[in-house]
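Lab notebook, bench 4. The sequencing result for the construct came back, and we need a structural model before the next group meeting so we can plan mutations. Quick request posted to the team channel:

Model the 3D structure of this chain.
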Amino acid sequence: MKRRFLLIENIKEPIILELQKQPHKEGYITINKADLANNIPLKLRKILAQRGLASNEEIGMKTNKRFCWHRLVACLYYNCIGRFVHHIYKNSLDTNDITNLIVVDEKQHKSIDNDKKNCIRRGLKIQKILKDELFKQPKQTLANNDNIILKILKLKKQGLSNKKIIKKLKSKIKQTKIYEHVKTFFYVDDFLKWLESEQNRPIHMLNEKTSKRWRKIIAFEGL
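Done. Here's the predicted structure in token form:
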């Protein structure tokens, strides 16, 4: 029996929550909303609701009834508000990793479902478009220059406040970007230690101990 967990990081006390599957007549994996609401911060619930945990934000914030596991997975990558989360391989409704999910509008959803001959091909084509947009490389600027980001993180590790970092680097990068980088690299100390120890290792060595499901995510994200 598969077990399903929600891991919440980048907070002072990380949360690992096991979510219990509830039966659904159409075969989807559903979870009790109250189970989620009682165990994660309200701020995070709002983010998930705004990203499309349910069809709209109001429904997403309610604690009654259930939500679909595949919507939770998809909304971590895509904005799913008002959209359908479509399984590319329909015979794998229990395969709810992101490699099998795309987001489409109602018309597309019905059209693909009715096109039995080409449904998988069309789904994979849409997935490529979504991935190209999702992982589009930003233009190289000072704001996303690796050396500048590393400088910010090293200053943070030294114990400097965000305000002092801004004062030091204000001629090179906007303060909003500094806040963004500090927020992204929440575990600054651990990240810099990892970066120092791993910088000369080939990328495949970082992934060698991962499970099958993690390997799918790594492949999807192109790491």
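The mean pLDDT is 85.
Will bring this to the meeting.
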